[in-house]
Amino acid sequence: MPVMKRREVIALLGGVAALYPPTLVAQPSPAARITIIGVLAPPSFTASEGLREGFHELGYVEGQNLRLEYRWAEGPIEQYANSVSELMQLGAAVIVTYGTPAALAAQRTTATIPIVMAAIGDPIGSGVVPNLARPGGNITGFTSIVSDLEVKRLEVLKEMLPRLSHVGMLWNPANPAVVPAAAAVRQAAKEMRLFVDGVEVREKREFEPAFQRWRQNRPEAALVLADPLFLDNAPQILGFMADQRMPAVYSHRELAVAGGLMSYGPNYRELFRRAAGYVDKILKGTKPGDLPVQQPERFALLINLNTAKKLGLEIPPMLLARADEVIE
Question: For the domain 146-266+300-327, what is the CATH code?
């Protein structure tokens, strides 16, 4: 067998390289290395930015190894389900949800794509998971324990207005997590000797009839239960409260910042940041059902002093001292 000289080998390899340029030889495209994460949340929910922060801390870079596909939805579960289908068609590796309707829609639409709930009111009561320690299936995440917090918000409202006797409750009976929360509020109000004037709003067009009832009944203050629908329609709600000079407590910080009197609840931005950690674990091989559904690590009371002044309210010193954030 003839032996090829070194210069002949180099010439041969050079010829092969000319036929197959480096750009054409088994080079994976950048897009193939990008992981798509679907996000399903209300249109005005700024706390979802916490997800980006969490991924950044874990070393993910959008456009290089990560692509966040947002689908904004509100209303009945069916509308959310359409968005889940879109995310599945895009090839989402994991779907991150906010709120009970979004979590239920994702769970009912796919049994294979992992789902991480950034926040859900009552995952067991809603039938999303059988227990918190081992949720099983393709879903896990974080709960905002709505029922307990709604009662706490009522207590804060009563502390703000010691002579309160007639309180309005704005709630969405179409949200499975809110139904037990509303019942818990009514029971607590009974024990506190408060009359609850509950108005039901399932979609945007029902706000005006609900507010018209309150114009007639004139509750002294209002409790706005946690629901994505109310976050999406914050301007309409806050406008009514301002026109009627009605103090109110909310579940989301955004509403108090935008002009509501108070908010009390978990740090939703932090929950989304922690959700990124769960997504990372799942992408590295952990089964969603083996990750426990966790509760918030802390809660925050925000008081808007500007709004209190407009309403002619003097904040009780003890309540003001407990506030985690004050807007002046």
Answer: 3.40.50.2300
> At residue 313, does pLDDT exceed 80?
yes
Residue 160 and residue 220 in contact, taking contact as beta carbons nearer than 8 Å: no
Least confident of 6-10, 110-114, 151-155, 296-300: 6-10
Q: Where are the domains of the chain?
A: 30-144+267-298, 146-266+300-327
At which residue do the structure tokens 């976050």 appear? 231
Nearest residue to 238 (alpha-carbon basis) of 44, 26, 33:
44
Tens of pLDDT, residues 245-276: 999 999 999 999 999 999 999 999 999 999 99
Entry pTM: 0.81
